[in-house]
Amino acid sequence: MGSEEILRHLRWYLTTEPTPQGRLEAEFGSSQGPAGLYVASSQPKRRQAPAAAPAAAPAAASAAAPAASAPPDLTPKNLSPGLDILIDWLVEEVEDKQLKERAAKWRGVKVKNPTGRGSGLLKRRGCEGPEAMDLYVSWIVAALRDFPYLSMPEGRDAGIWIRDEVIAKVFEERWDFYNNKRLQGFDLEEFYEVLRILLKWLKDIQKELKED
Q1: I want to staple 68 with a disulfide (CB 3.0 to 4.6 A). Which of 95, 98, 138, 192 is the partner?
Q2: What pLDDT, on the 0 to 100 scale, is given for residue 109?
C-alpha cells in the first residue's frame, strides 16, 4: 500500500458514516470498538500483583531469550499524545540506534554470517543474533501498541485508523502487532526498512491532517 492509497483511505475513513469497524473491533467484538474502548479507558486500571519469580531454569534452557525491557512512555506529562510525538520518537530511535548504518553493514555480514552472532550488530540485554533482534522488535512494538491512540488530538477515529490500518499493517505476516508475538520475524535490514516505510506513511498522514 503506497502513501497515496493510505491518504485516500484516511479521507474515506474520517468522512464515512457510520465509522467502519477497526480490526480489533472486528476480531474481538464491540468491547474493542471506539465506544467500548472509551468506557474501558475511563475506568481505573487494576494493578496486577507481580508474578512470583520462576525457579532457576535448567542449563539446557539457557539459550532462551530474556523478557524484553519495559517499553518507553511516549507521552511525557503535559504533552498531548499527538502524531508528532509518535513520529519524533521513531525518528530519534532510528537515529540513536544508527539503524540505517547498521542495516547497511548487515547486508554484507549476513551473506557469510546469517545469524549475525559475533558481528557486534545484533546485541540486546545479554543476547546476540536473532534472539537480540526479536527482543528489540518486541520492545518497539510494545511502545507502538501502548500509545494512547484514542486520546490523540487528531481525533479518536483518526487514532484508531492510524493504529489498525497503518501501524499494525506494516508488521503484517512478520509480527503479530496486537499480541506482540513473532511470526516470520525480521532481520536488521528488514526491520529498518519497515520503520522507514512507517515513518514515511506517518509523515504523509500528518501533512494531510494539517492541510485539512
Answers
A1: 138
A2: 78
